[in-house]
Protein backbone atom coordinates (compact mmCIF):
# COMPACT_ATOMS: atom_id res chain seq x y z
CA UNK A 1 0.00 0.00 0.00
CA UNK A 2 1.34 3.45 -0.92
CA UNK A 3 2.10 6.00 1.81
CA UNK A 4 -0.25 8.62 0.30
CA UNK A 5 -3.15 7.86 -2.03
CA UNK A 6 -5.26 10.40 -3.91
CA UNK A 7 -8.28 8.60 -5.33
CA UNK A 8 -10.84 10.03 -7.78
CA UNK A 9 -10.55 13.53 -6.32
CA UNK A 10 -12.77 16.24 -7.77
CA UNK A 11 -13.14 19.71 -6.32
CA UNK A 12 -15.59 22.48 -7.19
CA UNK A 13 -15.75 25.96 -5.68
CA UNK A 14 -19.32 27.19 -5.29
CA UNK A 15 -20.49 30.79 -5.02
CA UNK A 16 -24.04 32.15 -4.95
CA UNK A 17 -24.05 32.40 -8.77
CA UNK A 18 -21.39 30.06 -10.15
CA UNK A 19 -19.68 26.70 -9.75
CA UNK A 20 -16.00 26.56 -10.76
CA UNK A 21 -14.46 23.12 -11.23
CA UNK A 22 -10.89 23.33 -9.90
CA UNK A 23 -9.88 19.64 -10.00
CA UNK A 24 -11.19 16.73 -12.04
CA UNK A 25 -10.56 13.02 -11.39
CA UNK A 26 -7.12 13.22 -9.75
CA UNK A 27 -5.56 9.83 -9.07
CA UNK A 28 -1.98 9.50 -7.81
CA UNK A 29 0.14 7.77 -5.19
CA UNK A 30 3.27 8.88 -3.33
CA UNK A 31 5.65 6.49 -1.60
CA UNK A 32 7.16 6.97 1.88
CA UNK A 33 10.33 9.07 1.74
CA UNK A 34 9.59 10.27 -1.80
CA UNK A 35 9.98 13.92 -2.85
CA UNK A 36 7.51 14.92 -5.56
CA UNK A 37 6.61 18.21 -7.26
CA UNK A 38 3.37 19.56 -8.70
CA UNK A 39 3.81 21.88 -11.68
CA UNK A 40 1.48 23.27 -14.33
CA UNK A 41 -0.01 26.46 -15.76
CA UNK A 42 -1.84 28.98 -13.57
CA UNK A 43 -5.30 27.77 -12.63
CA UNK A 44 -4.45 24.05 -12.74
CA UNK A 45 -5.41 23.53 -9.08
CA UNK A 46 -1.94 22.78 -7.62
CA UNK A 47 -2.51 24.79 -4.44
CA UNK A 48 -6.10 23.52 -4.11
CA UNK A 49 -4.79 19.96 -4.22
CA UNK A 50 -2.05 20.78 -1.70
CA UNK A 51 -4.67 22.26 0.67
CA UNK A 52 -6.75 19.07 0.32
CA UNK A 53 -3.63 16.97 1.08
CA UNK A 54 -3.12 19.12 4.18
CA UNK A 55 -6.66 18.30 5.33
CA UNK A 56 -7.65 21.99 5.32
CA UNK A 57 -10.91 21.09 3.57
CA UNK A 58 -12.36 17.91 2.04
CA UNK A 59 -12.56 17.41 -1.73
CA UNK A 60 -16.03 17.69 -3.29
CA UNK A 61 -15.63 14.01 -4.23
CA UNK A 62 -12.95 11.37 -3.77
CA UNK A 63 -10.52 10.49 -0.99
CA UNK A 64 -7.03 11.38 0.25
CA UNK A 65 -5.43 8.82 2.56
CA UNK A 66 -2.10 8.83 4.40
CA UNK A 67 -1.22 5.34 5.61
CA UNK A 68 -4.86 4.43 5.00
CA UNK A 69 -6.18 7.23 7.23
CA UNK A 70 -8.39 10.01 5.82
CA UNK A 71 -6.48 13.30 6.09
CA UNK A 72 -9.49 15.59 6.57
CA UNK A 73 -10.14 16.62 10.21
CA UNK A 74 -7.73 13.93 11.43
CA UNK A 75 -6.02 15.18 14.60
CA UNK A 76 -3.85 12.04 14.74
CA UNK A 77 -2.01 12.98 11.51
CA UNK A 78 0.80 15.53 11.81
CA UNK A 79 1.17 17.35 8.49
CA UNK A 80 3.79 20.07 7.98
CA UNK A 81 2.91 23.02 5.74
CA UNK A 82 5.56 25.51 4.61
CA UNK A 83 4.48 28.58 2.63
CA UNK A 84 6.06 31.38 0.62
CA UNK A 85 5.86 33.62 3.71
CA UNK A 86 7.47 32.38 6.91
CA UNK A 87 4.66 33.59 9.25
CA UNK A 88 7.01 33.84 12.24
CA UNK A 89 5.52 35.72 15.20
CA UNK A 90 7.57 38.95 15.46
CA UNK A 91 7.04 39.31 19.22
CA UNK A 92 8.39 35.82 19.96
CA UNK A 93 12.04 34.75 20.02
CA UNK A 94 13.29 32.29 17.40
CA UNK A 95 13.25 29.54 20.03
CA UNK A 96 9.63 30.35 20.94
CA UNK A 97 8.65 30.30 17.26
CA UNK A 98 10.29 26.92 16.66
CA UNK A 99 8.76 25.33 19.78
CA UNK A 100 5.24 26.69 19.23
CA UNK A 101 3.87 23.39 17.88
CA UNK A 102 5.61 21.43 20.66
CA UNK A 103 3.94 23.68 23.24
CA UNK A 104 0.54 22.85 21.73
CA UNK A 105 1.49 19.15 21.94
CA UNK A 106 2.40 19.72 25.63
CA UNK A 107 6.04 18.62 25.21
CA UNK A 108 8.00 19.70 28.32
CA UNK A 109 10.01 22.95 28.11
CA UNK A 110 13.53 21.48 28.50
CA UNK A 111 12.91 18.86 25.82
CA UNK A 112 11.42 21.48 23.47
CA UNK A 113 14.37 23.85 23.89
CA UNK A 114 16.86 21.03 23.34
CA UNK A 115 15.07 19.99 20.11
CA UNK A 116 14.89 23.64 18.93
CA UNK A 117 18.68 24.00 19.38
CA UNK A 118 19.33 20.79 17.43
CA UNK A 119 16.98 21.75 14.58
CA UNK A 120 18.38 25.28 14.32
CA UNK A 121 21.88 23.79 14.11
CA UNK A 122 20.62 21.34 11.44
CA UNK A 123 19.30 24.22 9.32
CA UNK A 124 22.61 26.08 9.68
CA UNK A 125 21.50 28.60 12.33
CA UNK A 126 23.17 27.64 15.63
CA UNK A 127 23.04 29.98 18.63
CA UNK A 128 20.22 32.28 17.46
CA UNK A 129 17.54 31.01 19.85
CA UNK A 130 17.18 34.33 21.70
CA UNK A 131 17.08 36.54 18.60
CA UNK A 132 13.85 37.90 17.08
CA UNK A 133 12.62 37.44 13.48
CA UNK A 134 13.34 41.12 12.63
CA UNK A 135 17.06 40.42 13.19
CA UNK A 136 17.19 37.77 10.44
CA UNK A 137 17.32 37.90 6.63
CA UNK A 138 14.53 36.39 4.49
CA UNK A 139 16.54 33.23 3.83
CA UNK A 140 17.32 32.79 7.53
CA UNK A 141 13.66 33.26 8.43
CA UNK A 142 12.65 30.51 5.98
CA UNK A 143 15.24 28.23 7.63
CA UNK A 144 13.58 28.95 10.98
CA UNK A 145 10.18 28.16 9.41
CA UNK A 146 11.63 24.84 8.21
CA UNK A 147 12.93 24.05 11.72
CA UNK A 148 9.49 24.91 13.18
CA UNK A 149 7.80 22.61 10.64
CA UNK A 150 10.16 19.71 11.39
CA UNK A 151 9.87 20.16 15.19
CA UNK A 152 6.49 18.39 15.36
CA UNK A 153 7.85 15.41 13.36
CA UNK A 154 5.25 15.64 10.55
CA UNK A 155 4.26 12.55 8.55
CA UNK A 156 4.58 14.60 5.35
CA UNK A 157 5.90 18.04 4.43
CA UNK A 158 3.85 20.20 2.03
CA UNK A 159 5.82 23.05 0.45
CA UNK A 160 3.88 25.78 -1.35
CA UNK A 161 6.48 27.79 -3.31
CA UNK A 162 8.58 28.29 -0.14
CA UNK A 163 11.60 29.72 -2.00
CA UNK A 164 9.89 32.04 -4.49
CA UNK A 165 10.24 35.23 -2.41
CA UNK A 166 13.99 34.77 -1.89
CA UNK A 167 16.91 36.11 -3.89
CA UNK A 168 18.42 33.54 -6.26
CA UNK A 169 21.48 32.69 -4.13
CA UNK A 170 19.38 32.17 -0.97
CA UNK A 171 16.88 30.10 -2.98
CA UNK A 172 19.60 27.72 -4.26
CA UNK A 173 21.10 27.34 -0.78
CA UNK A 174 17.70 26.62 0.76
CA UNK A 175 16.86 24.07 -1.97
CA UNK A 176 20.05 22.18 -1.10
CA UNK A 177 19.28 22.36 2.62
CA UNK A 178 15.67 21.14 2.28
CA UNK A 179 16.75 18.32 -0.06
CA UNK A 180 19.47 17.21 2.39
CA UNK A 181 17.22 17.32 5.46
CA UNK A 182 14.36 15.46 3.77
CA UNK A 183 16.79 12.62 3.01
CA UNK A 184 18.37 12.68 6.49
CA UNK A 185 15.01 12.77 8.29
CA UNK A 186 13.43 10.27 5.85
CA UNK A 187 10.51 12.63 5.18
CA UNK A 188 7.95 12.48 2.40
CA UNK A 189 7.53 15.88 0.70
CA UNK A 190 5.29 17.53 -1.89
CA UNK A 191 6.47 20.77 -3.52
CA UNK A 192 4.21 23.12 -5.48
CA UNK A 193 6.31 25.29 -7.80
CA UNK A 194 6.19 27.25 -11.06
CA UNK A 195 9.93 26.64 -11.51
CA UNK A 196 10.60 23.60 -13.75
CA UNK A 197 14.30 23.65 -12.83
CA UNK A 198 13.55 23.58 -9.12
CA UNK A 199 11.14 20.67 -9.58
CA UNK A 200 13.73 18.61 -11.49
CA UNK A 201 16.60 19.44 -9.13
CA UNK A 202 14.69 18.49 -5.97
CA UNK A 203 12.29 15.71 -6.95
CA UNK A 204 12.09 11.98 -7.49
CA UNK A 205 8.96 12.45 -9.63
CA UNK A 206 7.14 15.41 -11.15
CA UNK A 207 3.37 15.59 -11.70
CA UNK A 208 2.37 17.95 -14.52
CA UNK A 209 -1.21 19.26 -14.37
CA UNK A 210 -3.33 20.78 -17.11
CA UNK A 211 -5.76 23.61 -16.33
CA UNK A 212 -9.47 24.46 -16.25
CA UNK A 213 -10.28 22.10 -14.67
CA UNK A 214 -7.04 20.81 -13.15
CA UNK A 215 -6.24 17.29 -14.34
CA UNK A 216 -3.14 15.13 -13.98
CA UNK A 217 -1.68 15.35 -17.47
CA UNK A 218 1.66 13.57 -17.24
CA UNK A 219 4.15 12.13 -14.71
CA UNK A 220 7.91 12.44 -15.15
CA UNK A 221 10.47 10.22 -13.43
CA UNK A 222 13.67 12.14 -12.60
CA UNK A 223 16.69 10.00 -13.65
CA UNK A 224 18.53 8.39 -10.72
CA UNK A 225 21.77 10.05 -11.83
CA UNK A 226 20.13 13.46 -11.20
CA UNK A 227 18.35 12.37 -7.99
CA UNK A 228 21.66 11.33 -6.42
CA UNK A 229 23.06 14.87 -6.75
CA UNK A 230 22.34 17.96 -4.66
CA UNK A 231 19.90 20.37 -6.36
CA UNK A 232 22.79 22.75 -7.09
CA UNK A 233 24.90 19.98 -8.70
CA UNK A 234 21.87 18.55 -10.55
CA UNK A 235 21.53 21.71 -12.64
CA UNK A 236 24.89 20.99 -14.32
CA UNK A 237 23.97 17.44 -15.33
CA UNK A 238 23.13 16.85 -19.04
CA UNK A 239 20.09 14.71 -18.06
CA UNK A 240 18.71 17.72 -16.16
CA UNK A 241 18.82 19.85 -19.32
CA UNK A 242 17.20 17.13 -21.41
CA UNK A 243 14.30 16.66 -18.93
CA UNK A 244 13.91 20.45 -18.63
CA UNK A 245 13.41 20.72 -22.41
CA UNK A 246 10.88 17.87 -22.43
CA UNK A 247 8.78 19.34 -19.61
CA UNK A 248 9.07 22.87 -21.06
CA UNK A 249 7.64 21.68 -24.38
CA UNK A 250 4.76 19.86 -22.67
CA UNK A 251 3.97 22.92 -20.55
CA UNK A 252 4.08 25.17 -23.62
CA UNK A 253 1.63 22.88 -25.43
CA UNK A 254 -0.76 23.07 -22.45
CA UNK A 255 -0.61 26.87 -22.33
CA UNK A 256 -1.44 27.17 -26.04
TrEMBL record:
<dbReference type="InterPro" id="IPR027417">
    <property type="entry name" value="P-loop_NTPase"/>
</dbReference>
<keyword id="KW-0067">ATP-binding</keyword>
<dbReference type="InterPro" id="IPR050166">
    <property type="entry name" value="ABC_transporter_ATP-bind"/>
</dbReference>
<dbReference type="GO" id="GO:0005524">
    <property type="term" value="F:ATP binding"/>
</dbReference>
<keyword id="KW-0547">Nucleotide-binding</keyword>
<dbReference type="InterPro" id="IPR003439">
    <property type="entry name" value="ABC_transporter-like_ATP-bd"/>
</dbReference>
<dbReference type="InterPro" id="IPR017871">
    <property type="entry name" value="ABC_transporter-like_CS"/>
</dbReference>
<protein>
    <submittedName>
        <fullName>Spermidine/putrescine ABC transporter ATP-binding protein</fullName>
    </submittedName>
</protein>
<dbReference type="GO" id="GO:0016887">
    <property type="term" value="F:ATP hydrolysis activity"/>
</dbReference>
<dbReference type="Pfam" id="PF00005">
    <property type="entry name" value="ABC_tran"/>
</dbReference>
<feature type="domain" description="ABC transporter">
    <location>
        <begin position="1"/>
        <end position="236"/>
    </location>
</feature>
<keyword id="KW-0813">Transport</keyword>
<dbReference type="InterPro" id="IPR003593">
    <property type="entry name" value="AAA+_ATPase"/>
</dbReference>
